[in-house]
Design brief:
Order of helices and strands: EHEEEHEHEEEEEEEEEEEEEEEEE
CATH superfamily of the largest domain: Hexapeptide repeat proteins
Shape: globular
CATH topology of the largest domain: UDP N-Acetylglucosamine Acyltransferase, domain 1
Strand content: 25-35%
CATH architecture of the largest domain: 3 Solenoid
Distance between the termini: 48 Å
Radius of gyration: 16 Å
Largest sheet: 6 strands, parallel
Strand order of the largest sheet: 6-9-12-15-18-21
Number of domains: 2
Number of helices: 3
CATH class of the largest domain: Mainly Beta
Length: 198
């Protein structure tokens, strides 16, 4: 019997997470918790809305597993707040990896992180908690992705790069090997980074 999991956030990123979780096959999705009450929305991809953030302490009595499924483009604040709330309530935050992604057995991934379809995480990589490694992203050998980062679709993090906590690294952006990107940075889509970014 599969463990049940609830997803926190009911937007577009949630739909992508649902697809990965369904394909992974480890969990049964019990439903979605929205940030606020939207009476006009009662389901996401046929999974019911179970309540709002305010209901999480009550939902913890029934469910042990949760995943933050709020997206992150400019600011990581919402994802960080939700992650901390789930930790305070003693939810288990699993690592979710698409069956059509590749994660080296020599890589380390933190709790609550999702690795999405066709992403590639190579040997020696360290990824922190509560990250999104989005579809077709490449994280090369020995890179460090700190907690609460979003590595967007088809982004390339080359070998030995360090990405600071809370950073958004945009679609098709690429970073020169062994560069460092400071915390809470926003890297626009398609940008080429060839030097350290404070």
């Amino acid at each position: 019997m599969k463990e049940q999991i609830i997803l926190i956030g009911a937007g577009g990123h949630c739909k992508s997470c649902i697809d990965v979780i369904e394909q992974q096959g480890r969990f049964e999705i019990a439903g979605i918790v929205d940030r606020e009450n939207h009476p006009e929305v009662n389901a996401v991809l046929d999974y019911p809305i179970l309540g709002t953030d305010k209901d999480l302490s009550e939902l913890k009595k029934t469910y042990d597993y949760a995943l933050v499924t709020v997206g992150q483009i400019k600011s990581p604040l919402s994802r960080i707040q939700l992650y901390n709330l789930l930790k305070d309530l003693k939810f288990s935050l699993p690592i979710v990896v698409s069956p059509i992604a590749y994660v080296s057995r020599h890589a380390s991934i933190g709790e609550g992180t999702i690795v999405m379809h066709h992403a590639l995480v190579n040997a020696g990589v360290t990824i922190g908690a509560n990250c999104i490694i989005n579809n077709k992203a490449l994280v090369e050998h020995d890179a460090i992705i700190e907690e609460h980062c979003h590595i967007a679709t088809a982004a390339i993090i080359n070998g030995g790069v360090k990405v600071g906590a809370g950073t958004f690294f945009g679609s098709n952006a690429v970073c020169k090997e062994y560069s460092e990107i400071g915390e809470n940075s926003v890297v626009a889509c398609g940008v080429k980074i060839t030097k350290n970014i404070p």
